[in-house]
Amino acid sequence: MRQARALPLSRRGLLTAGGALGLGALVTACGDKGASGSGDDGGGSWSFTDDREKKITLDGRPQHIVAYIAAAAALYDFGIEKQITGVFGPTTLKNGKPDVQAGDFPVDQATSLGNTWGQFNVEKYASLSPDLLITNMYDPGALFYIPDDSKKKILSLAPSAAISTGRISMLEPIKRYAALAEALGADPKAKKVTDAKARFEKAAETLRKTVKSHKIKVMACSASADLFYVSNPKINADLIYFSELGVDFVVPEKPDKGGYFESLSWENADKYDADVLFLDNRTATLQPGALTSKPTWSKLAAVKAGQIAPWSSEPRFSYAGAAPLVESLTKAIQDAKKVS
After folding, report:
1. Cβ neighbours of residue 311 closer than 8 Å, sequence gap 6 or more
2. pTM for the complete prediction?
3. pLDDT, tens digit, 9 for 90 and up, residues 137-169
């Protein structure tokens, strides 16, 4: 979720202490971008224009890439398997297993520069001799998970590429990561990629048909110790796409600054009615088992009916990453009964 200054109103709060889901305005530059890649051996020149409209030009194709973990996971799905030598962001859990945001990326093959918000080991980053830094961008010009206090030093060590991932339909960043992966040398016609795309397209069509016959109200939400957040389906990339397919989401009446969510005290968590709760499943948020002590939570109709579906609120922007999300939401809607 993003790099705003005010903790109570930004993704930073949720990532650190279960604060908020807000995102700032985004540069929506997902049209025809110039991108060219060099040969597999890295010879020749290489260039790519990112979503800041910034053209990155190198002497050869990047061979030592450091990426935000969700970006690394998306690129891995598109076939970039060996060039990513470093990652940052929520990569592993306390028990050493991969964080949900790591997707299928083999976390043991890359050096971690920091697992939580604010952590980015600059010295270790420099030791990797990075050719390119890649991350998501939720606010104009703000590179996600790059700490403000060390940003200048970090960006001086290697060129950076940012992909817009908010206020636009999820399809757009998926296409952009596909384009970046191809520029980095991945084969867009590889069976792994085409199979994932076919699965995604099938899942999308199934969801489109399902919502026509199942009139179910869904509320995308996130929980922290102090607040309950109702997410805005007009702002979050995945919710925008699901809405385009016809999913009927609760739309918060009074979104907080940035427009991405409405934060409610637990006393008012029953402000909106819904048949299904699409609950943020990231490790920084509270899950159903930790919410039983909240009286209002237990009174929600969807909770009483056991109609809670996990929501990857920071999706993996690849066909392989998105297909299971579409399928999961479809099943939740298919299995749900009207309770609101």
Report:
1. 220, 221, 278, 279, 280, 281
2. 0.87
3. 987 788 999 999 999 999 999 999 999 998 999
Q: Report which of 257, 242, 267 is spatially closest to residue 322, judged by C-alpha positions.
A: 242
DSSP string, 173-187: HHHHHHHHHHHTT--
Q: Report yes or no: 21 and 231 within 8 Å, Cβ to Cβ.
A: yes
Q: Name every residue whose Cβ is closer than 8 Å to that of residue 147 and which is 6 or more positions away in sequence.
A: 118, 119, 120, 154
- Can you give the pLDDT at residue 43? 55
pLDDT at residue 335, rounded to an integer: 98
Handedness of CA 131, 3, 53, 152 (dihedral sign): negative
Q: Rounded to the nearest 5°, which phi and psi values hold at 57? A: -125, 130
Nearest alpha-carbon partner for 182 in 52, 53, 30, 35 = 35
Structure tokens at 37: 């890649």
Q: Residue 129 half-sphere exposure, CB side, CA atoms within 13 Å?
A: 3
Find how far residue 178's CA is from the centre of its chain: 15
Q: Residue 149: exposed, middle, or buried by beta-carbon count in 10 A (0-12, 13-18, 19+)?
A: exposed
The span from the CA of 133 to the CA of 157, in Å, is 9
pLDDT of amino acid 117: 93
Higher pLDDT residue, 7 or 15? 15
